[in-house]
């Protein structure tokens, strides 16, 4: 049964910030509580939090930091750095942005090679490609 079913899940606790300097660029950081993974299966969640994958005890925060990211109209594109455990990997950042008076809503997806984070792919336990979909809503302060 290994590798047959596709699991989906969410991280339930995160925080972040973003700046829009006005030149079309976006600067920001998203911090995710690695122990807040929820796939709807407690055993799977516990396995993901263990040392083999997220190692939540030793690395409680997953971080996505913007690199060269631009907003043109409703599109965002560029690259960021995703840090999981002790590995930081450049990842593509692409998707949509919606800015209104009170909030910035960012949506996008990326396909990650889990081997770059040192995760095992043997025996079909986890696929090499992991699709990450994100929707982030940031509230304006100040």
UniProtKB/TrEMBL annotation:
Pfam families: YceI
Residue stretches making up the Lipid/polyisoprenoid-binding YceI-like domain: 3-123
UniProt cross-references to InterPro entries, sorted A to Z: Lipid/polyisoprenoid-bd_YceI, TTHA0802/YceI-like_sf
Taxonomy, superkingdom: Bacteria
Family named by the database record: Belongs to the UPF0312 family.
Name of the protein described by the UniProt record: YceI-like domain protein
Organism annotation: Mycobacterium intracellulare 1956
């Amino acid at each position: 049964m290994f590798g047959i079913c596709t699991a989906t899940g969410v991280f339930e606790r995160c925080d972040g910030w973003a700046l829009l300097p006005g030149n079309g660029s976006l600067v920001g950081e998203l911090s995710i509580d690695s122990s807040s993974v929820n796939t709807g299966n407690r055993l799977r969640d516990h396995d993901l939090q263990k040392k083999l994958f997220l190692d939540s005890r030793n690395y409680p925060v997953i971080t996505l930091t913007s690199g060269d990211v631009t907003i043109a109209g409703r599109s965002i594109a560029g690259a960021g750095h995703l840090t999981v455990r002790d590995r930081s990997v450049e990842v593509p950042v692409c998707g949509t942005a919606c800015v209104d008076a009170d909030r910035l809503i960012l949506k996008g997806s990326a396909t990650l090679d889990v081997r770059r984070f040192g995760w095992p792919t043997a025996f079909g336990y986890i696929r090499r490609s992991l699709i990450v979909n994100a929707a982030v809503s940031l509230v304006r302060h100040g």
